Each structure stands twice: as C-alpha cells, then as structure tokens.
Amino acid sequence: RRPDAWSESQKERADLLFERYPKLKQAYNLSLNLSNIFEKTTDKLYGLARLAKWHEAVRQSGFKSFNTISRSIQHHYETILNYFDSRSTNASAESFNAKIKAFRSQFRGVRRTEFFLSRLTQMYA
Fold first, then answer.
1. CB atoms within 10 A of CB 2
2. Domain residues of the chain, as ranges?
3. Distance between CA 32 and CA 16 in Å, rounded?
C-alpha cells in the first residue's frame, strides 16, 4: 500500500519497522518509485529517463531481488515504453493464457490438438 492509504496503526508499524530495518525502507521506496513511474509518467522519453534512474538506484542498492526486474525492464524497454503512449497492457492476454493452461492441465495434457482447440473455442468464444 501507499503511505497515504495507511491507517494510523500501519503508520506506527511502518515507522518502527523502517527505523529498525533501514534496508526494508530502501526496498519499499524502490518499489514505490517504480510504480510512480508508471502511474505519473505520460511521455515515452521522460519514462525512459526515469526508468534509467530507477535502474541506477537499484544497482546502487545492491538488492538482488530487484536486479531481476531491472534486467527484465532493460531487455524489454522498447515494448514497455509503449505503455506510456496508450496506457494499455497485455494483462488480458496473460489472463486468457492462464485460462488455457488451466483448461489444458484439467485434462492432463493434450492428445488431440483439434479436439482441444474445438473445446477451447466452445468454452471461450
């Protein structure tokens, strides 16, 4: 959650946690900064610059868990930057792909592709 959505008790807990574990606060701020880039940036060029700054902050932080997403953003930055143009994602395609995988696993694989595709079109068309 964002700090402005915290209750009073959550604010107190966060203050205690961040005071005792400064690395946790640093990681939380990195994640907030990444979400702010996508929420508040509307220009591709500005988005690229902000992502580059975020990548540098991740590199300096030394958090291995953030390195994975940072590398993914670097490898796919051209398609990720398209988000700033139309504000659309591939979430619906990913959701449909998950449904197909669940359907396939329900039948423990696919023996006949034609039958699988016909069943799939009947269910989701």
1. 9
2. 3-86, 91-124
3. 19
